[in-house]
């Protein structure tokens, strides 16, 4: 069991975590025809917008209520109302997801009551679904904001089960913030291959998968459809990924009566075996042959890759669920987790991470811990860790959010047999790229090259014998 250590620094020197409102905004972006709205100042929104655009390389329709000094003192209900009306008039979204910020939460506004009054008196908003999630910046991290937004959507949109609902082979999927659009697409294909119908909430595979649309649209294109989300009670089962999705999954289960299974991770052999077994049980069908083939390919990749993983010293800094998933992955491949840093302590399974201790801190804590541990062979974190990797002189595996100095982030796969296989190859190739290519001059010190006179003398001595 890992020891949990909380950093006592008064300031974050090199931040690891991203804000809770940003996590909520990313979840809202997984809804069709959506516009995320930050209830706070313009600065809060600008920070999240820049990171999102740099990470996905896409236009992000993130808006703000633009609170100023007067609104901060006297109240910002008018700002919220004006923002909602402006968005409806200019962008005509089907869904507006509001996330609070520290400015509103610290002031102690009754934003839920304000929103209720606004929706009651503004007929222009009657056809727009508006959801509000409490996501103060000073509490939690990206995972907490994502989970809060999904819970708010479930509370506001999902209809409770009733006898009039027709049940069919539908499976609800609640992906975590660590799943890329490519991961969600893999899950969708996997579920459909068993003859089941997936309803994914939120669904980034349609809205942030990096495609060129024929027409410009001010809102998200693709994503979870409100009509399908409202009918999640028709499902035979709900699959959630990551411990941070347990609360939304339990909320959905209590509202609809649909059984829930939470997978802490879907990276690795055992986790995917359990997923396919569940889908086979739900559908009554055997596992398709192509997945048996992919499983065999993963086993071969594990066999090939363990030579490069064995004995390697790994330092990981990430949000709790990603930290748990990646540490289990590296540990299963024979590597040692010498440093584990989590962005927040809001996770029940941090003590299950295969490391001596888990530090709740930032990238500066990670860098100090690596030096104290005598170094590492690989640093695993997002793009803000690139300077630390350079100072430590070790390679960097970019994971999580944000990754802004590489292309194709939305298409990286880490779940399923194929995603796990590709991750093994990515890491093994990083290790192989650090291997030194030897040249004849490398051995001059250990085995000095003899002079021409010595060669002649040795040749004559050999001839005499």
From TrEMBL:
Keywords tagged on the record: Nitrogen fixation
Q: Does the keyword Cell inner membrane apply?
A: no
- Metabolic or biological pathway, per its Swiss-Prot or TrEMBL entry: Cofactor biosynthesis; Fe-Mo cofactor biosynthesis
Question: GO biological process annotations for this chain's record?
Answer: protein-containing complex assembly
Q: Name one GO molecular function term.
A: nitrogenase activity
Domain Nitrogenase/oxidoreductase component residues, every copy: 20-431
InterPro entries found in the cross-reference section: ChlB/BchB/BchZ, Nase/OxRdtase_comp1, Nase_comp1_CS, Nase_Mo-Fe_CF
The entry's family comment says: Belongs to the NifD/NifK/NifE/NifN family.
The cross-references to NCBIfam families, in alphabetical order and at most eight, read: nifN
Q: State what this protein does.
A: This protein may play a role in the biosynthesis of the prosthetic group of nitrogenase (FeMo cofactor).
Its recorded name reads Nitrogenase iron-molybdenum cofactor biosynthesis protein NifN
Q: To which species is this protein native?
A: Komagataeibacter swingsii
Q: What is the lineage of its organism?
A: Bacteria, Pseudomonadati, Pseudomonadota, Alphaproteobacteria, Acetobacterales
């Amino acid at each position: 069991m890992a020891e949990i250590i909380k950093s006592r620094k008064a300031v974050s020197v090199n931040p690891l975590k991203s804000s809770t409102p940003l996590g909520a905004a990313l979840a809202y972006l997984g809804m069709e025809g959506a516009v995320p709205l930050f209830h706070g100042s313009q600065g809060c929104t600008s920070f999240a917008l820049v990171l999102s655009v740099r990470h996905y390389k896409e236009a992000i329709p993130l808006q703000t209520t633009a609170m100023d000094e007067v609104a901060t003192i006297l109240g910002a209900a008018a700002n919220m109302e004006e923002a909602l009306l402006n968005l409806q008039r200019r962008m005509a979204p089907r869904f507006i997801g509001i996330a609070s910020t520290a400015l509103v939460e610290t002031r102690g506004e009754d934003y839920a009551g304000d929103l209720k009054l606004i929706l009651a008196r503004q007929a222009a908003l009657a056809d727009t679904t508006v959801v509000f999630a409490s996501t103060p910046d000073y509490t939690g991290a990206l995972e907490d904001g994502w989970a809060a937004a999904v819970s708010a959507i479930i509370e506001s949109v999902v209809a409770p089960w009733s006898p009039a609902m027709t049940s069919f082979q539908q499976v609800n999927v609640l992906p975590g913030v660590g799943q890329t659009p490519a991961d969600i697409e893999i899950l969708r294909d996997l579920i459909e291959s068993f003859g089941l119908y997936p309803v994914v909430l939120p669904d980034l595979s349609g809205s942030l998968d990096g495609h060129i649309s024929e027409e410009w649209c001010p809102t998200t294109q693709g994503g979870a459809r409100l009509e399908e989300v409202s009918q999640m009670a028709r499902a035979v089962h709900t699959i959630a990924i990551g411990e941070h999705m347990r609360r939304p999954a339990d909320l959905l289960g209590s509202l609809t009566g649909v059984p829930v299974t939470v997978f802490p991770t879907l990276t690795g052999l055992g986790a995917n075996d359990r997923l396919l077994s569940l889908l086979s049980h739900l559908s009554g069908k055997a596992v398709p042959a192509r997945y048996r083939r992919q499983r065999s390919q993963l086993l071969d990749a594990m066999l090939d890759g363990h030579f490069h993983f064995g004995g390697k010293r790994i330092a990981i800094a990430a949000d709790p669920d990603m930290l748990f998933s990646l540490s289990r992955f590296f540990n299963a491949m024979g590597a040692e987790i010498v440093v584990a840093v989590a962005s927040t302590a809001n996770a029940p399974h941090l003590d299950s991470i295969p490391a001596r201790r888990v530090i709740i801190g930032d990238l500066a804590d990670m860098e100090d811990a690596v030096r104290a541990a005598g170094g590492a062979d690989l640093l695993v974190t997002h793009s803000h860790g690139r300077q630390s990797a350079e100072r430590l002189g070790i390679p960097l595996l970019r994971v999580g959010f944000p990754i802004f100095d590489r292309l194709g982030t939305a298409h990286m796969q880490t779940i399923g047999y194929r995603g796990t296989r590709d991750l093994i190859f990515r890491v093994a190739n990083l290790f192989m790229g650090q291997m030194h290519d030897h040249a004849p001059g490398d051995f001059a010190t250990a085995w000095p090259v003899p002079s021409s006179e010595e060669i002649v003398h040795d040749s004559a001595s050999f001839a005499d014998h």
